[in-house]
Amino acid sequence: MNKKEKINELINEAINSVDNIQRANPMPFLLTRVNARLNKKEKNVWEKAGWLIGRPAYAIPGLAMLILINVMVVVSNRTDPFTATTEQPTQYPTDEFSYTVSTIYDIENPEPQ
Questions:
Q1: For residue 60, what pLDDT is reported?
Q2: b or e along 75-101 (b: 16 or more beta carbons within 10 Å of the residue's beta carbon)?
Q3: pLDDT value, residue 38
Q4: N or C terminus of the chain: which is more exposed, having fewer CB within 10 Å?
Q5: What is the pLDDT at residue 109?
Q6: CB 61 within 8 A of CB 67
């Protein structure tokens, strides 16, 4: 089978794959639900909050305040590089179960010789 016949066969398979397609049917009462939602006059809390936050009169000062708070946190947490710090000696507890590299790579032969 040459390349042109293979391409024609693939095209025919693609065309024949749509033979048994049926029309999609919406769920029952979908139109009724959509119309009821569109005609609904009262808004819930999240819709009101989204409308309020989306207004430029509230969004721009809110973003500016958020940026200002972030800058204040960064500036207040910055340490002076010339401040002398005292070093405290740390004594680590000895771990009797710790392994050294040489003991990890020891090969054990479980079979008797």
A1: 93
A2: eeeeeeeeeeeeeeeeeeeeeeeeeee
A3: 86
A4: C
A5: 63
A6: no
* DSSP-assigned letters across all residues of 30-83: HHHHHHHHHH-----HHHHHHHHHHSHHHHHHHHHHHHHHHHHHHHHTPPPTT-
Q: Which DSSP symbol is given to 111? A: S
Domain residue extents for the chain:
45-74
* CA quadruple 75, 77, 82, 86: dihedral, nearest 10: 170
**Residue 37 in tokens:** 């939602």
Taking the C-alpha atoms of 69, 72, 77 and 78 in order, what is their torsion angle to the nearest 10 degrees?
Answer: 140
Residue 31 burial (CB count, 10 A): 10
Q: Block means of pLDDT (10 residues each) for the chain, length 113 residues?
A: 87 86 86 88 85 90 95 84 65 58 59 62
Torsion of CA 72, 73, 79, 85, to 10 degrees: 140
Question: Rounded distance, CA 56 to CA 54, Å?
Answer: 6
Tokens of 4: 């042109």
